[in-house]
Amino acid sequence: MIEARRSIFSRLVAGAIVLSLVLLAGLWWLTHQTVSTTLQQAAQAEVDVDLAGLADIYATGGRVELEARIADRIALTPMEGGAPHYLLADDSGRVIAGDLTTWPALDPTVSESGIIAIGANSKGFARAVQLGPDLRLVVARGIDIETPVLSGIAMAFAGGGAVFIGLVALLGRFAALGLQRRIGRINLAFREPQDGAGLAATGRIDGDEIDELTAHSGAALARVNDLLAAYKDTSEQLAHEIRTPLSHLDNRLVKALAQKPDTAIAERLAEARGEIRRIVQTLESLLDIAASKANRGDRSGLVPVNLSGLVTGICELYAGSAEEAGLELRWTIAPDVIINGDERQLGRLMTNMLDNALKYVPRGGQIAITLERGPVLVVADDGPGIDPRDRARIFERFYRGRLRGEETSGSGLGLALAHAIAERHGLSLTLEERETTGLGGAVFRIAAAA
Amino acid sequence: MRILYVEDDPRSAAAVGEILGASGDVLVWEDNGSAALLRAGLEPFDVIILDRMLGDIDGLTITRRLREGGIGTPILILSALGRSSDRADGLDGGADDYLAKPFEPEELVARLRALHRRATGREHSAVILYGAFECHVKARTAFRNNRHLALSPKEFELFRYFMENAGEVVTREMLLRHVWKMDFDPQTNVVDVNIGRLRRKLEDGFDRPALETILGSGYRLLDGTP
């Protein structure tokens, strides 16, 4: 199971919540602006109508009449909209009439309008006009009504938004759980391919996308299982059908040898038996390579193996043989290097590397094995090395190098099998450039694959 | 020894019959799994040899059924499937030993003897005595004529395996499997060289040889007495 933080469904739900929040905030801002503008426009319209009326009064009734009307209007409490405010002043800003005490920063000569402060805590929309020489008028409407309306809208958005986001989260979680369960079943089937056969039955091509994915996954898994079974059957039959007649042939040779033929014939018969052994080994190595390649990337069946102990044991096993071949075999092993693997196969890999080195390094040479954490296993020697033209093909089946002289023993599969075993364990077996490391001969390096 | 052999190929059966006839053992042959299961339940055998790919029930299933049925007779699987994964399948499935065809006749006989010996419990004692040799299993010490033999840990393992199979042929494959836990033959002569080193330690300062090389099959520990 994937932890919640990495699950695509948790991220989808979180994404939906964030998106909803952004949308709500945007919608709230738009509403806020619209309401605010509408209120201001209403105040502006009222101010302009009022101003036009007062200008008429001044034109017909003069300044005294105007002062009286302004006083009337201030006394009147309006039914709707903001309270009106006035200021009649001369050009020097001295107050003649009205309830505003100071001339606002509005230019009456161009009939400037704007938001001004009214008293200590209120604001209003105002327009100033020049009524006559040395007489100017400001008419304002309070827009404080905006605040309760806007805070009402904000409250509505906050409350409604909380409920909305809660619902989004709940529905998202619910839908995600359902999807998660269905996807989880597909993942489980791939993790445990042996039990995946049931998947095909639960998926439907005529359902939704996940049903279809389930069906396809089930079919693909069933095909992989069939292929693996067929592969196992075929390789078993192949081995059986070749080894059984070879076994009969070997038997005849044993019987012929038992009749004590003369030495020359006995030697030939023994050689023939040796050939039979080689055919069998080649067959086995080929099947082992195929099996390793087929299981590449499949971690099932691998258990922790103490590589340090394994490599040390094999080096000790080979020490005597190296000494008899006039070679110096040294090993430097970091303690407790553990990897998940198949102990027998890893042992095979190591012995193949040593068999290879012992075969090609001439008397008087050195072989150095180092194992470090990582794991990094290096098998280096001071032998003739690998011809540059062979480097690319050294791990291929049946490939024998140019510098290897008349040496024809062995199946030509040792390095190919080692390579396949390394890959099966998620390791890479590579040939290092001779200049970089080692003793000047071949340097093989086994390390975690990049 | 009384041996039950389950094999559907008559030629293989005849070949094994000849080998075991020559070594003086009694071989009872069954060519199918059901009959073999029946017979193994009715009659006592010292060792059972099983082929893997039979007509009706495969060898691994027979092994499992025998073990489930409480029959602990040592089982050697003799099969044309010889890869190390095949061997692991067999040994993990309850078989005691695994030999792939084609095989050396001496190898088969040696393995059967070793299985029989182990089943009769001669190897479980703390001190194994054979001729002039003493092997103290717990203390991990070895003596010849009461003289201590300075063996490395691996040499001791090797010596102990020879003591457990004293007087009998021990093959390279048996040594690789039991002493080095390897089920394949390295191309290098590692077993022979290691035996050579053990031989020197066992024989150094003594007149009589300790190990006999059996050409083409393996080694035998001699009693080392003058």
Description:
The complex is a heterodimer of chains A (450) and B (226). With 450 residues, chain A is an alpha+beta fold. Chain A has three domains: 8-148, 2-Layer Sandwich (Beta-Lactamase), CATH 3.30.450; 209-294; 303-448, Histidine kinase-like ATPase, C-terminal domain (Heat Shock Protein 90). Helices cover 55% and strands 16% of the residues of chain A. Chain A is built from eight helices and twelve strands. Chain A has helices at residues 8-75, 146-191, 199-202, 209-258, 263-294, 307-324, 343-360, 414-424, and strands at 84-89, 95-98, 113-118, 122-132, 135-142, 303-306, 328-333, 338-341, 366-372, 376-381, 427-431, 443-448. In chain A, the strands form three sheets. A five-stranded antiparallel β-sheet of chain A has the order 2-1-5-4-3. Chain A has a five-stranded mixed β-sheet with strand order 7-9-10-12-11, with helices on one face. In chain A, a hairpin with a 3-residue loop joins β3 (113-118) and β4 (122-132). In chain A, α6 (307-324) packs parallel to α7 (343-360). The two termini of chain A are 26 Å apart. Chain B is elongated and about 60 Å long. Chain B has 226 residues and is of the alpha/beta class. In chain B, 40% of the residues lie in helices and 22% in strands. Chain B has helices at 10-22, 33-42, 59-68, 84-92, 105-119, 153-164, 172-179, 190-203, and strands at residues 2-6, 26-30, 47-50, 75-79, 97-100, 127-130, 133-136, 141-144, 147-149, 169-171, 211-214, 218-221. In chain B, a hairpin with a 2-residue loop joins β8 (141-144) and β9. In chain B, α2 (33-42) packs parallel to α3. Chain B has eight helices and twelve strands. At the A-B interface, α4, α5, α6 and α7 of A face α1, α4 and α8 of B.
